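User: I'm putting together a teaching handout on how multi-component assemblies are represented. Below are the sequence lines for each component of a complex, exactly as they appear in our records. Could you produce the 3D structure of the whole assembly as structure tokens, so the students can see both representations side by side? Please keep the chain order the same as the input.
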Amino acid sequence: MRKVLITGVTGFAGSHLVDYLLTRNDCEIHGIWRWRSRTENIEHLKPGQITLHECELRDATSTYDTIAKIKPDWIFHLAAQSFVPTSWVAPSESLQTNIMAQVNIFEAVRRLGLKTRIQLACSSEEYGMVFADEVPIKETNPLRPLSPYAVSKVAQDMLGYQYWMSWKVDSVRTRGFNHEGPRRGPVFVASDFAKQIADIEKGRKAPVLHVGNLDAKRDFTDVRDMVRAYVLALEKCEPGEVYNICRGQCWTIRETLDMLLAHTKTKIEVKQDPARLRPSDVQILLGDNSKFVKQTGWQPVIPFEQTLSDMLEYWRAR
Ligand code: GDD
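Assistant: Of course. Below is the structure of the complete assembly, with chains in the same order as your input.
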């Protein structure tokens, strides 16, 4: 049985990755948590399905000791400060969390002399300022990050390259485009809108749905397709390489909102909230997935319409 360590196991993508790995029944799953971690995303798991270890990734000793204890064959590094607006409110915390966690994992693997393969959850946000003639975006596109979060992901991405070149620490850099689905944190756009609709339907909120920039475009994939891609990345991709993971189709946020609103009979007013606008928003993310598809044969199978409907049902049930 392959030993797999998932950082961010209590989070959105991490919990779906566990669900997927359990269906394969070919690995021993380890995850890390902190004493204040919220565990609701993994509460459906049965005792013994995963082993949790208390670990603070920003602490080199804690990270080293945990990796030394598990000696994982694979690490999926999903833990991060992942909300773009928070990175303007707390830039140094976002940079430290994302970059230092990465360094601590690499250093632990390197110093222990392990042959671990590491999947790095890099991001399409790294592309940032994308010009009209640059879509669909290839991995070779210039990186022009527009937020401290995006800068932190560029750093993680480049560390992956550098640790491979310098030390042969084996990582695959996945530049994930937006992914949505049940259990998505309520601050991210589709989850935020779906939760507002569910709250309005239950009478817990006035019938006004607050929004930010509706003109931005995003290439959305279902999280359940995304985590399958992460596994394929470690099974089939080249060490030190970088791959876009995306559907290759994008929607404006306005279209996303309209698709969600089509699922409710309640009359809802849509209102822009200036507090939801960003100092510099990424206007378009539309990716080219051909490098990853050629290497792995991956295809997304869940339609975006289904993802949105599942998210709305998730919030209604809660
Ligand atoms: N969150 C939010 N809330 N976003 C809104 C809103 C709103 O009310 N209204 C419009 N938007 C717009 C944002 O301005 C942005 O253009 C888009 O919706 C998506 O916002 P988010 O869902 O917050 O995601 P993101 O694109 O900034 O970042 C996500 O995707 C990245 C990959 O591209 C995150 O999951 C990142 O962690 C990830 O790396």
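A couple of points students might notice: The chain is about 40% helix and 15% strand. Residues 189-217+250-284+304-317 form a domain with the UDP-galactose 4-epimerase; domain 1 fold (CATH 3.90.25.10).
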